[in-house]
Design brief:
This protein is 46% helix and 15% strand. By secondary structure, the protein is an alpha/beta fold. The protein has one domain: 3-Layer(aba) Sandwich (Rossmann fold), CATH 3.40.50. The chain has a 7-stranded parallel beta sheet with strand order 3-2-1-4-5-6-7, with helices on both faces. Strand 1, helix 1 and strand 2 form a beta-alpha-beta unit. Helix 1 runs parallel beside helix 2 and helix 3 packs parallel to helix 4. The N terminus is likely disordered.
Length: 253
């Protein structure tokens, strides 16, 4: 995996939600390469595997299983985090869910499930994180969304609404938590990864090609591309940046 071991996040404590695969895993590994202590939130068995990778890089790492859309799970996750490290510097909200359906077929349960996993999850985690971050030097939050939250997409009103809501939440929290905590957003476009695989039916090669064609660079966006953007926004290089949405791999040609 590409990365620079310059240790610019040395001993900073970071939480990455949905960190067991794809973009979340890439963010966790990049943070570990630069010296951060990383807590990986996960909902499947892959979480422990990622933590083992992180530990092999020589950093402290822990896996915490939990559903971020459930307040009780989030409370337990942050209790474990506080007991282990006693602090939190960085949060990356990467949880998402997709239940693609045309408007006439979209059910209330599908609407609620997608909004809860993405938007409610980011709210609950950001709320809990802010309480720990307020006394830390230069804390930061990054929310990861699909570019469809900015552009719209037919056949997934629930998914698009959740993504757009997360962009709005980013702007609101950036104002409310300023100047102590910075909050920014990375919008992922043209990506064949855990965000887009859940939204598009990747069994159809034509759809894979369509995403690559829509990307300004004509290739699918890799998880490491997104991870590097996240690390920039979490770093001191972006000390004056808050409330912004950085688009990675998107834009029509």
């Amino acid at each position: 995996m590409a990365g620079q071991n310059d240790r610019s996040f040395t001993e900073r404590v970071a939480l990455v939600t949905n960190g067991s695969s794809g973009i979340g895993r890439a963010v966790a590994l990049q943070l570990a390469l630069q010296g951060a202590y990383v807590i990986v939130n996960y909902a499947d068995a892959e979480g422990e595997s990622v933590v083992n990778e992180l530990r092999e890089l020589g950093t402290l790492a822990h896996a915490v299983r939990g559903d971020v859309s459930r307040a009780a799970d989030v409370r337990l996750m942050f209790l474990a985090l506080e007991e282990t490290f006693g602090r939190l510097d960085l949060l990356v909200n990467n949880s998402c869910q997709s239940r693609q359906a045309e408007l006439d077929a979209l059910t209330e349960d599908e609407w609620d499930e997608v909004l809860a996993s993405t938007l409610k999850g980011a709210f609950l985690c950001s709320q809990a994180a802010a309480r720990l971050m307020k006394k830390r030097p230069a804390p930061a939050i990054v929310n990861i969304v699909s570019e469809t939250g900015l552009t719209g997409h037919a056949g997934g009103a629930n998914f698009v609404a959740a993504q757009a809501g997360l962009v709005g939440l980013t702007k609101a929290l950036a104002r409310e938590l300023a100047p102590r905590i910075r909050v920014n957003c990375v919008a992922v476009g043209g990506a064949e990864n855990d965000l887009s695989v859940k939204y598009y039916d990747w069994s159809h090669a034509v759809k894979r090609q369509a995403v690559k064609t829509e990307s300004a660079r004509g290739r699918a966006t890799a998880p490491d591309d997104v991870a590097r953007a996240c690390l920039y926004l979490l770093s001191s290089d972006a000390a004056s940046v808050t409330g912004q949405t950085l688009i990675v791999g998107g834009g029509s040609r």
